[in-house]
Amino acid sequence: MRAIWASVVGLLAAGSLVGCEALVGFGDLPGRDAGADARKAVDARHPSDAPADTTADTPGSCGRLTEPCCADDACDAPLTCREATCQLASGNTATGKPCTQSSDCASGICEPVGQPVGLRAGWTGSVCSTTCTSAGECVPGWTCGTGSGASTEVCLCSYSAEVCDGRDNDCDGVVDNEPATDEQCAATKGTNYVCRSGVCTCPVGYSASSGACCPTGRTGCNGACVDEENDPSNCGGCGVACLTGDTCTDRTCQCTPDGTCNSDCEDSCGNPCTGGSCSPTCVCGDGVCDSSCGETCDTCEADCGVCPPTCVCGDGTCDSSCETCDSCPEDCGPCDVPDACVPTGTCTNCDDGCGNGCDSGDCGG
Fold first, then answer.
1. Where do the DSSP E strands lie in the chain?
2. Which residue, 60, 96, 183, 194, is most buried by CB atoms nearer than 10 A?
């Protein structure tokens, strides 16, 4: 305990503690009431991704290393709130800061961790560390053991590439570095996956769908998020492609005529057309009586009107519009015959009054 307090004093002297920051594992020290901190399990960078804090009134349930952040993003120092979880800040003087000798560290402890020198800015292969009595006082992924040339146990780390697992793999004092772990999740799990609390998952507002995290209105398709409502390459389903030039509306491919007309009088969508090397197409009901394509009063009354009545001689009806006693006596009867002429009995100019000649009268001899 004396050694731990000495480390705290050293850090305060170095000006490394800011705000509510203190060394890992000090939530239960005299005068430190971790439960008295305002609580809020939300990371300021991802306010909607963190679950609600259901342990706000339980002392020691937030603020410590790997525990949820308290309200106002408060954590026990030298921790900082990341991904709604309390972690050590990158580059702090207690753990994870690159060093070459013990005097580079406020704790006086510089440990080799095997980081590739120069892989990231400032990396030397060694980092600052702190004393410990158990691994629980170290950053997740670190162990507590005898350091190089140290007479006390210190937090130790062995470098590996950072992955989303709730541990500090690359020994920089930060658990699940961003954006590296988000990129790793997207590469291994699918499009838009992110790292949250050591697990690759979909961010708020997205849902898992066929190897991708997709927002509302989008569906996973071969690792990408597509719009099956309007995407002509995925119209109504993954990989359902419309013909070249067609559009997709309401999950259905829609043909768009290209302005041509083939020899069958059809456009590029199979609809009737009037161009090309085909006969004109008549449309009965368009108001035009087009005799060139066979429209007549018999074939299209809507355009050519009602045909005149047709007379049928012998149907028993004398239709005066087309029948007479001369043209159809069967229907109209015989025409009227003048009354027979009765000779007058006299002979005038050799005419008996009925146009007949006679033998008497003034016949000229």
1. 79-82, 85-88, 110-112, 126-128, 143-146, 153-156, 194-196, 199-201, 206-208, 213-215, 219-221, 224-226, 247-249, 252-254
2. 96
Comparing C-alpha atoms, which of 239, 213, 237, 240 is closest to residue 225? 213
Residues with Cβ within 8 Å of 73's Cβ and at least 6 positions away in sequence, in order, are: 40, 42, 43, 44, 81
Residue at 109: amino acid letter: I
Closest by CA to 303, choosing from 316, 290, 322, 293, is: 290
Domain residue extents for the chain: 180-226
Q: What is the pLDDT of residues 138-168, one digit of tens each?
A: 999 999 999 887 678 999 999 999 999 999 9
Q: What are phi and psi of 258, to 5 degrees?
A: -95, 5
Q: Letter for the amino acid at 142?
A: W
pTM: 0.46
Of 78, 91, 93, nearest to 137 (Cα)?
78
